[in-house]
Write a structure and sequence with these properties.
The chain is α/β, with parallel strands linked by helices. Helix content is 31%, strand content 25%. The protein binds malonyl-coenzyme A (MLC) and adenosine monophosphate (AMP). The site of adenosine monophosphate has 18 residues, from β13, β18 and β19.
């Protein structure tokens, strides 16, 4: 049998051969493969009736749930690409993403509608708890499955300029990544995944949802991460897989330390990614739960790139080796020539999982997507003689807090809009819960009357996702700069750590 060329084709195949097979459990309700396909078809018909055409974009500003799945898969079935929008995004992010992607419409819930109101895009607002629009319209024409080269998702990921770029994920690259993940992790139709991560980022969507649909497996989907609920479910024997960012694992460890004793969890596999997993977390989790977490490495532009082995040594502090069918190498930062094992350089990856470039941004695409197929990740690391990759840092400035990426420049640009801020530098410092936290050093316009911290906090919160606001603010008389005038963030980090 030939492999499906899209996640939709995989869904269609499972829904046709075994329509009653359970696919999704949400708040006590189970949706079968057949029911999920019917939901996607109803959404696709509605989009068609609203004028969504092949090649259009549809924005999704929705929390997890069946409505997300229907709206997402339905848009693709109608021939449109979906623009993923984190529900925490506010003015600054929303304005940019909507102006850049020009969606035909944005699907949201009522909370989301409030934030979208002043923005130009037409919205389709769902009633609370609804999985479909109230005024559902029937389809006008039959649907065709998308082709591999067509755009499935625009996933916005920030850059050094502070302006997020839309990674163009095609149906083919998403399918190739799911196939590789399922092979590497032995994901089969008998698996059941507990998923508490949001669906608007590649971890929850591209790994969790797509892997499930690819394998014909099932998903226990939750609206959010509640440590005690997760532990109860993991201990119940009803799921076989769990995926998390490192913060989830350290919070689970903290949770049981209050409620001993603990028994080994009856799971097949726990996976961590999106941020570095501290070896101490890996060890503590294994001691408490009898599960050695498998750490993997991914990126919005590529999906999953490197993984510790399912069988074989899961080496602490490393992110393993390329997934099947993919390549990786370490290159010199300046010359981009490949480096021998053991030397630190920039990680590049290549394979059918790499996205098609950045939406309407040829310059940024040319900088990172090379003609010979290699993609420069911006992550630094080295390869051991036996093939394991270790990440050591990043070539570009980036703070990862609880698995969310924060580009300092975006926060700096916003702070500088505040009249009381003359200069500022934003950087990351270690945080016991989130791995890293956002810290701002600010030179006030009037040194005798520095701005009130809570006011700055509110200023950020209204304009950017709440997780991006500085947790700690220091007021300084000047920022340390080098001879070229460039702010020395490492000095600030040492000074303020
Ligand atoms: C929430 N808050 C955060 C935060 N998450 N602050 C900093 N960093 C974070 N990650 C803040 C909120 O703004 C709020 O502040 C307060 O914490 C409580 O909010 P909450 O919603 O109740 O938080 P919680 O449920 O505890 O969320 C923590 C979390 C969540 C770890 C579960 O952040 C999360 O789901 N992270 C995963 C993100 C993810 O999926 N990343 C993958 C990207 S893809 P206040 O003050 O407003 O109350 C990728 C590629 C790859 O990276 O390889 O996977
Ligand atoms: P995003 O742009 O949100 O997709 O985040 C991708 C970035 O997350 C990568 O470039 C890495 O810096 C980081 N990342 C993902 N997985 C890991 C991991 N296992 N260890 C360290 N960093 C990771």
């Amino acid at each position: 049998m030939t492999e499906p060329t899209s996640i939709l084709a995989a869904l269609l195949s499972h829904a046709t051969t075994d329509p009653k097979r359970p696919c999704l459990t949400w708040e006590g309700q189970t949706l079968s493969y057949g029911a999920l396909l019917a939901l996607a078809q109803a959404w696709a018909g509605h989009y068609q009736a609203l004028g969504v055409q092949h090649g259009d974009r549809v924005g999704l500003f929705l929390p997890s749930g069946p409505a997300f799945l229907g709206a997402y898969l339905g848009a693709q079935l109608a021939g449109a690409a979906t623009v993923l929008i984190n529900t925490q995004y506010r003015q600054v992010e929303l304005q940019h993403i909507l102006a850049d992607s020009e969606p035909r419409l944005v699907v949201c819930d009522q909370a989301g509608a409030e934030h979208l109101q002043q923005l130009a895009s037409p919205i389709l607002s769902l009633k609370p708890g609804a999985t479909l629009p109230a005024d559902l319209q029937p389809a006008l024409a039959p649907f065709e499955l998308p082709q591999a080269h067509e755009l499935a998702i625009l996933a916005y990921t920030s850059g050094t300029t502070g302006r997020a770029k839309g990674a163009m994920l095609t149906h083919g690259c998403l399918a190739a990544n799911s196939a590789a993940i399922c092979t590497a992790w032995h994901w089969s139709s008998s698996d059941r995944l507990l998923l508490v991560l949001p669906l608007f980022h590649i971890h929850g969507l591209g790994v969790g949802l797509h892997g499930t649909l690819w394998a014909g497996a099932s998903l226990d989907l939750r609206p959010r991460f509640e440590p005690s609920d997760v532990l109860t479910t993991l201990a119940s024997g009803t799921v076989t897989l769990f995926f998390g960012v490192p913060t989830l694992y350290s919070r689970l460890i903290a949770e049981v330390r209050h409620h001993a004793p603990v028994h080994p969890l009856p799971l097949r596999l726990c996976v961590s990614g999106s941020a570095p997993l501290a070896p101490q977390t890996l060890t503590a989790f294994e001691q408490l739960f009898g599960q050695r977490i498998l750490e993997r490495y991914g990126m919005t532009e590529t999906g999953m790139n490197l993984t510790n082995p399912y069988l074989g040594e899961r080496r602490a502090g490393t992110v393993g080796m390329p997934f099947p069918g993919q390549e990786a190498r370490i290159v010199d930062l300046q010359t981009r020539a490949p480096l021998p094992d053991g030397l630190i350089g920039e990680l590049q990856v290549r394979g059918p999982h790499i996205c098609a470039g950045y939406w309407r941004n040829l310059a940024a695409t040319a900088e990172l997507f090379h003609a010979d197929g290699w993609f420069s990740t911006g992550d630094l690391g080295w390869r051991s003689a036996d093939g394991y990759y270790t990440l050591t840092g990043r070539a570009r400035e980036l703070i990862i807090s609880g698995g969310y990426n924060i580009y300092p420049r975006e926060v700096e640009e916003l702070l500088l809009e505040h009249p009381a801020v003359a200069e500022c530098a934003v950087f990351g410092l270690p945080d016991p819960d989130f791995g890293e936290q956002v810290v701002a050093a600010i030179v006030p316009t009037d040194p005798l009357h520095p701005p009130v911290r809570t006011e700055l906090e509110q200023f950020c919160r209204e304009r950017l996702a709440a997780y991006k606001r500085p947790r700690t603010i220091h007021f300084l008389t000047a920022l340390p700069r080098n001879a070229m005038g460039k702010v020395q963030k490492h000095q600030l980090r040492d000074l303020l750590a």
